[in-house]
What we know:
The protein is an alpha/beta fold.
Amino acid sequence: MMLAASQVKQQTFRRTKIICTIGPASENPDCIRELIREGMSVARINFSHCKYDEALERVRMLREARKDLDVPLAIMLDTKGPEVRMFGYSKPVLLAKDDTLYIESTDKQPEDVAALPPEKKHFFTNLPHIDKLCQAGSRVLLQDGFIEAEVMRLHTEWPGAVTVRVLNYGRLKDKAHLAVPGADYPIPFMSDKDRKDIAFAVENNFEYIALSFVRTARDIADVKELVRSVRPDSPIRLIAKIEDKQAIANIYDIIRDSDGIMIARGDLGIEVPIEELPGLQKNIIKRCYLAGKPVIVATQMLESMTDRPYPTRAEVTDTANAVMELTSAVMLSGETANGVHPARVVNMMGRIIDRAESAIDYRALARITHDYVDRDNITNIMAYSVVDAGHDWNAKAIAVVTASGIGARALSKFRPSIPIYAFAHEEVLYHQMALNWGVVPFLIENPEGQRFSEVAKKTMELLRGKGAVSNGDRLVFMASSPFGKGHPTNTIRCEIVGDDAFHDET
């Protein structure tokens, strides 16, 4: 299984990856193949809205499609996490300005609470002791922040309940989000459902788990411990979703201990003043790529295309800005899960990415990045040297042979103008690297015991056969030699495709 030539050509020019959420609108083989052809590199399955049998069917279709199309494609499970919801109503409720709502904390599940008539304006929430988290005058945000209310009364005669006054008209959808900005919710990071879902991801060999509402590095450590208890040698990678103030306060530790970050702007934009969101996004992106960790920008990227053929100008600008800030990936949620034309959305996102990437000065970026990274790390030193040589020599691409992905991620942090062709012999790593900025993964046989010149020759033949390079093209190779010995990156080699004398051993 190796990368198809058409996919090489596309990813050569598209460094920023696209994540698509698979849902009712896209969970069929034809649509999944179309999404891949348009540029999907990672498929996300949201376990807030998915049962195990549905997930297994989606995974089956995704694996079948990536095998048939001969492409790397990572599959990501997104946990539900400690979401705060409202329930106790069976259909959307229209709210008018100055309506009063009675909201009561309960430990019951939504399906165990009888729906009350809408005119009662009596709702339930899974947020424990809501009356202890706010006071009269506190803001309460409903429906992803689109409906604002203020607390009018704490019910001392009935602990765990508040009355709020609605400040603007809105339509309260089923199981709407509820937020008390600034409050530290007394909810465990992992519910029983989350533990089962994480175990499910490990047992069924997902490439990534996106962890909702990570607040501290301890949360990540707890998940790692759970993963080891299910499968000690699991290669699954953990993406921490940043969604509240506590996560922002611990962002450096979270970046250090996770395998990547998702900036989940929906909940984050409720929990912090919304005007702070652009600056937070830009800072987190920079911190992640300097650390060599993939970073994803998510939520409302092209949301208007859920039911319309074109995005708004603001959405186009938002997506382009994320690309120019050097995010590793941008994510589509409802646009591909429930939208009327999922593949059209991915095509549009690809067009925006392509145009934005063409405006970036990659050589200047590599030099600036070099000033910030750890120069005591030999892989960083080698990676920058390879990128610098590739730019100065006008190389066609960088080639890295990697057993762990460390070398490919180190090259990616310098955001080179030329593609990073990464050769791995483990299939799971091959698919995982589909998330990394600028990396085009290939699957090869285990190079252990082979000479560097042998491996270089085979990889060049592979690239040439796929139409990625032609005779006379220049490649800069990076690897750890001898292969299979676990040595740090120690070899840089310049090669010319088709020049046998150039790559023969001396």
